[in-house]
Write a structure and sequence with these properties.
The protein has 356 residues and is α/β, with parallel strands linked by helices. The chain has a single domain, classed as TIM Barrel, CATH 3.20.20.70. Helices cover 39% and strands 15% of the residues. It has eleven helices and 13 strands. The strands form three sheets. It has an eight-stranded parallel β-barrel, surrounded by four helices. The protein has a three-stranded antiparallel β-sheet with strand order 5-6-11, with no helix packed on it. A two-stranded antiparallel ribbon has the order 1-2. It is globular, with a radius of gyration of 19 Å. The protein binds flavin mononucleotide.
Length: 356
Amino acid sequence: MDPIYEKIIRPVFFRQDPEAVHALAVKALRMLGAFAPLRSAMEKFNLVRDENPVKVFGVEFPNRVGLAAGFDKDALAFRAAAALGFGHVEIGTVTMHKQSGNPKPRVFRYPQDEALVNYFGFPNEGAENIAHTLSKTFDKKTKKIPLGVNIGKSKITPLEEAAKDYVFSYNALADYADYFAINVSCPNLPDVRKLQLGENLRELLNALKAADAERASKLGKAKIPMLLKISPDLTFREIDSILETVFDLGVDGIIATNTTSTRPESMAGYAEKIGGLSGKPIFEKSLQAVKYVCAQSGGKIPVIAVGGIYNTECAAKMLDEGASLVQIYTAFIYNGPFFAKELAKSLHWRNNPEWI
Ligand SMILES: Cc1cc2nc3c(=O)[nH]c(=O)nc-3n(C[C@H](O)[C@H](O)[C@H](O)COP(=O)(O)O)c2cc1C
């Protein structure tokens, strides 16, 4: 970890309100993203390019480490991600309707556990406004890494109309997405996780697949890979049912996992009871989900592993279980802006020992 971040910047940041620091970080990265000379110099210096770039679900990634959804909810900071070393970035969660999310405070730090609890509930500017932002900032020619777009259900949309909500966001943002992440695993909104199973999931994915096929044939464009983001709180039987639907409908990949609504015993005395826990304490849970998905699918479905990855060993374990890529969020907060670069580099060396 960068000692300046650890000894000077982080202690100052951690004395402030987590959401205020987050807003400040997004602002700084937005400025960096907009200032092309510095951004491209930093990209040259920091973006780790693997010898053999990873190609999964038809998309090429310069390295295996991505920025997970939730950091750049409104697509303001994504242009700076490659300059920090990330090999891809996922914006969102974006919903059809602009919404303010749950009441504050809604982010809590647990430094001794290297963990966070968040109860955001998808605050975002709404799909149309975010598409407008992207229409001004997205530049295919200068973009160095794939952009994932994570979509979810608006709070005001009833569960029965969820598919319409996701399809609206899909259509609004399709021009910018290298892949879509379908978020059905957020623990912070009443109904979202109900979309993970049975007919609800089938109906949702069918509607999205139909929208994708229609767009592809109307515009003569390639289909956009669609990945499903799942919860670490599913039983193995529930994962089996999800995989059945995923294979039936030709979903392109799984992102495992989102935050957990459970708490480890060690945090029982002090962790917020409501909200999704992320960071170090969820690593084992996410690893088990990744392991199970990879094993049950016989490696046939690409997996992006996310959940509590805080060092090279964790990331390597996820890749060894069969994941193709990893993402981080909480470790980015605890280990600093260049942690992705460090991680991508160490994974690169691990794959190419002759380089050491
Ligand atoms: C503050 C915060 C906000 C998040 N918001 C979202 C979100 O909007 N959509 C989503 O799919 N995941 C969201 N996540 C979950 C992360 O993308 C990731 O799946 C989870 O935090 C586990 O990874 P980590 O332990 O590396 O943080 C959020 C996580 C945090 C900590």
